[in-house]
Amino acid sequence: MNTSIRATLKRKFLAGLFVLIPALITFLVIVWFFNFVDSFLEPFYFKILGYHFPGIGFISAILIIFFVGVISTNVFGKRIIESLERLLLKIPVLKGIYTSVKQLVEAFSPESRGSSFKKFVMVEYPREGVYSYGFLTKDCVIKAEKDGRESCLKAVYIPTNLIYFGDIVLFSAEHVFFTDIPIEDGIKIILSGGIATPPKISEGKE
User: Fold this and answer.
1) 55-64, 86-95, 110-119, 154-163: which range is least confident on average?
2) For the segment 123-171, what is each residue's pLDDT rounded down to a tens digit?
């Protein structure tokens, strides 16, 4: 009887724990993000107002982002942003950093999905018998200098740390398995650590 009660209490406790942990982690991430963003602009307002106003930096950051979004979606605003980008790209050190970060961010933008990640694929990597998820980014042709023979390769981005860090690996077409999983669902699979993987993955069109 006591064993049954202890087993029941244990199950209930673990059930509650598994429900609370995701909620608690989500809450802590939101609090951290709020404090992180707020810390940038709050000192500026403190110098002007003379007292601390928790949250004003965060609210200001949200409004600035929204304002930039409004500007970037109209013709006049796009011209201003393009002019600033051209100026930024003239600075040697910042050019490489800005270009790389922009291309990576655009890869996850719904508006540029057609020119970034092409397909969610599977490849045998990093060794034989081990398979990894990846995103097909581009086709490229390698031409041999001696005989002029050309080989078509597939550039695949393989995330190694969540989604924003990974390896770029070139594969021949026969070594790339094209899945029927949409890019959006592929991103969910990576971010969930594979938990969101469907029970059955079918081959998709190239």
Assistant:
1) 110-119
2) 999 998 999 999 998 888 888 878 878 889 999 999 887 666 788 999 9
Burial track 88-110 (b if 16+ CB lie within 10 A, e otherwise): eeeeeeeeeeeeeeeeeeebeee
Per the CB < 8 A criterion, the answer to whether 181 and 196 are in contact is no
Amino acid (one-letter) located at 105: V
* 48 residue type, one letter: I
- Contact, 53 vs 45, CB < 8 A? yes
DSSP assignment of 64-92 = HHHHHHHHHTSHHHHHHHHHHHHHHTTSH
Which residues are CB-neighbours of 81 under 8 A, at least 6 positions away? 71, 72
Which pair of structure tokens corresponds to residue 14?
A: 């673990």
Q: Is the pLDDT assigned to residue 54 strictly greater than 60?
A: yes
CA separation for the pair 42, 49 (Å, rounded): 10
